[in-house]
């Protein structure tokens, strides 16, 4: 089969790989019909995540058709159209039984600090991902769901991570009616978090980024008030000014490990890999939120330390909330929102790229060329 | 404002927001939010028919975190450890917990060793590695126009990208040259 393959930092290509096989009785093999590149895939692409092995296939956002099922699978059969949450989870461990499927303890042999994620290095379990023609899907009876007939494929693929994570990020903000919500980052997660904040009763939604085309999208798509941090000497001071020097009630970090806005922090983290992630966005979040406020962290960070201003968080009495999104837990409510038109995920898709040209997709997304917001990958474009 | 008790007024009233934004407030009640409360004990939640999953056969020795009691019942089988990078990775897993920075730094060293080895080996094939991929899109997808005059903060450090990407390749080429010269001298006697 054809699959995207990692060759080292900044290097990927498409190769022939052996077909995945059933490794466990509850596995399924899924033929991928649509996948996406996630912003967090760029951290892998840039060599920031430890134990990213040459030969790994990335991709944790995908949908497809069931090709084969293991002997114990009861809920799926060959030919079913399925959407697969980015979390791999057993459904029965301490964490899964409490709704924390993203923290499953039975699927990641390599680490206890993170659950398992498709195509996200051996640190996240050593599973190949869906930027390929076929993929192994463990625990087929608990992970995937049938795609409803009414749902568009592009909406379905965005529900496997980006939309669910943005919506989850807004929930972690514990938004109350009339709250001022500041979203750092106008990428896919930030756009969805901003839009979700309104559903939870926000009184004002502010989005900050440095890419003007993404801020324009935040205004149109998410009805947000926007600010370009590159135009201000100190964006934190400006956030204080526009909130009457109180700060936002809730700040959502939707940027993560490769945040820009401070040359030294960005270079030491993203370029030289001396930190687990650039702490700029998270420190801006801590500084921009009001005392007693909540910071929700949806940006992805590596497992190594980062220079976070923790003292300020303590002294301001902040609540810091974070997790990988337990995707499937969000789906019933999100299906309603998509059906009702409150959330329109496919509106953010900007590029549709054949699998054979996926290296182009990674560079376009990484370098933010051509007003790229969300690239999708089409395995069988011909 | 912050210096008095009242919260600053909002630009739009609740009624105006509801009229303007589709779905405003439909999840205002925390009961409608799927991840509230964060933990909700329900062993039937996920439809699993097992208390503990059947074990996946371990066809090759599989490294695991020392913080796990045993190999997890299901695990990834992509890219098993091999060669020098595999030895480094196995050492990192066997001897250092996730709490130790050495664990992660050794894994990063393993990554770089593997990347170097696979790049060198690729030159003995018909498909040698390039220093970076996807660069042709700089021409086809408005590379310059996407950057210049846009006020992008990242443009300041973009000149570093070629240095970051090319430095390991220059070091590799230098290493190969030094090695080849040493071998040639040895052969000459």
Task: Reconstruct the topology from this structure.
The complex is a heterodimer of chains A (382) and B (189).
Chain A: E1 2-8, E2 11-16, E3 28-36, H1 39-45, E4 61-69, E5 81-84, E6 87-88, E7 116-117, E8 134-137, E9 145-146, H2 153-159, H3 162-172, E10 180-184, H4 188-199, E11 204-209, H5 212-222, E12 225-228, H6 235-242, E13 248-253, H7 263-271, H8 280-288, E14 289-297, H9 310-315, E15 319-322, H10 327-340, E16 351-354, H11 358-367, E17 375-378
Helix pairs in contact in A: 3-4, 3-10, 4-5
Chain B: H1 14-20, H2 83-95, H3 101-122, H4 137-140, H5 143-147, H6 160-188
Helix pairs in contact in B: 2-3
Protein architecture, described:
The complex is a heterodimer of chains A (382) and B (189). Chain A has helices at residues 39-45, 153-159, 162-172, 188-199, 212-222, 235-242, 263-271, 280-288, 310-315, 327-340, 358-367; strands at residues 2-8, 11-16, 28-36, 61-69, 81-84, 87-88, 116-117, 134-137, 145-146, 180-184, 204-209, 225-228, 248-253, 289-297, 319-322, 351-354, 375-378. By secondary structure, chain A is an alpha/beta fold. Chain A has 2 domains: 2-161 and 326-378, Quinone Oxidoreductase, Chain A, domain 1, CATH 3.90.180.10; 166-322, NAD(P)-binding Rossmann-like Domain (Rossmann fold). Chain B has 189 residues and is mainly α. Chain B has 6 helices and no strands. The longest helix of chain B is centred in the last third of the chain and has 29 residues, at 160-188. Chain B is flat. The model of chain B has no long low-confidence stretch (mean pLDDT 94).
């Amino acid at each position: 089969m054809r699959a995207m393959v990692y060759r080292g930092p900044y290097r990927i290509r498409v190769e022939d790989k052996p077909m995945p096989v059933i490794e466990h009785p509850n596995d399924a093999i899924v033929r991928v019909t649509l996948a996406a590149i996630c912003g967090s895939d760029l951290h892998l692409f840039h060599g920031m995540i430890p134990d990213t092995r040459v030969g790994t296939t990335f991709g944790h956002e995908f949908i497809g058709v069931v090709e084969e099922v293991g002997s114990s699978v009861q809920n799926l059969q060959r030919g079913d159209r399925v959407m697969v949450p980015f979390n791999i989870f057993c459904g029965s461990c301490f964490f899964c039984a409490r709704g924390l499927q993203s923290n499953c303890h039975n699927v990641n042999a390599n680490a206890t600090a993170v659950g398992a994620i498709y195509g996200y290095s051996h640190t996240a379990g050593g599973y190949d991902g869906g930027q390929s023609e076929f993929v192994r899907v463990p625990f087929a009876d608990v992970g995937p769901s049938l795609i409803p007939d009414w749902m568009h494929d592009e909406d379905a693929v965005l529900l496997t991570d980006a939309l669910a994570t943005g919506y989850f990020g807004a929930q972690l903000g514990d938004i109350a009616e009339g709250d001022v919500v500041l979203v750092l980052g106008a990428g896919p997660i930030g756009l969805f978090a901003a839009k979700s904040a309104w559903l939870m009763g926000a009184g004002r939604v502010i989005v900050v980024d440095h890419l003007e085309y993404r801020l324009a999208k935040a205004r149109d798509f998410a009805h947000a008030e926007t600010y370009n941090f590159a135009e201000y000497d100190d964006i934190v001071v400006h956030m204080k000014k526009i909130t009457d020097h109180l700060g936002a009630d809730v700040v959502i970090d939707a940027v993560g490990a490769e945040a820009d806005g401070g040359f030294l922090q960005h270079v030491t983290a993203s370029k030289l890999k001396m930190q687990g992630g650039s702490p700029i966005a998270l420190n801006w979040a801590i500084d921009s939120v009001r005392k007693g406020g909540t910071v929700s962290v949806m940006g992805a960070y590596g497992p190594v330390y980062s220079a976070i201003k923790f003292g300020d968080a303590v002294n301001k009495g902040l609540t810091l909330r974070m997790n990988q999104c337990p995707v499937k837990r969000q789906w019933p409510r999100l299906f309603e929102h998509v059906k009702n038109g409150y959330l329109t995920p496919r509106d953010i898709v900007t590029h549709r790229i054949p699998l054979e040209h996926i290296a182009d997709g990674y560079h376009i997304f990484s370098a933010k060329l051509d007003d790229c917001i969300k690239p999708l990958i089409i395995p069988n474009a011909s | 404002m912050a210096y008095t008790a009242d919260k600053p007024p909002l630009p739009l009233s609740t009624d105006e927001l509801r009229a303007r934004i589709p779905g405003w407030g439909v999840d205002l009640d925390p009961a409608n939010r799927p991840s509230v409360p964060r933990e909700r004990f329900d062993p039937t939640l996920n439809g699993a028919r097992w208390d503990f999953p059947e074990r996946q056969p371990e066809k090759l020795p599989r490294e695991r975190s020392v913080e796990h009691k045993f190999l997890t019942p299901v695990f990834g089988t992509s890219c098993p450890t091999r060669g020098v990078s595999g030895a480094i990775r196995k050492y990192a897993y066997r001897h250092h917990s996730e709490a130790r920075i050495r664990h992660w730094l050794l894994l990063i060293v393993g990554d770089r060793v593997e990347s170097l080895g696979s790049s060198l080996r690729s030159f003995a094939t018909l498909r040698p590695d390039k220093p970076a991929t996807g660069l042709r899109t700089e021409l086809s997808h408005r590379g310059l126009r996407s950057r210049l005059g846009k006020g992008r903060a990242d443009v300041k450090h973009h000149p570093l990208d070629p240095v970051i990407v090319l430095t390991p390749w220059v070091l590799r080429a230098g290493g190969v040259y030094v090695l080849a010269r040493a071998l040639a001298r040895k052969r000459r006697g």
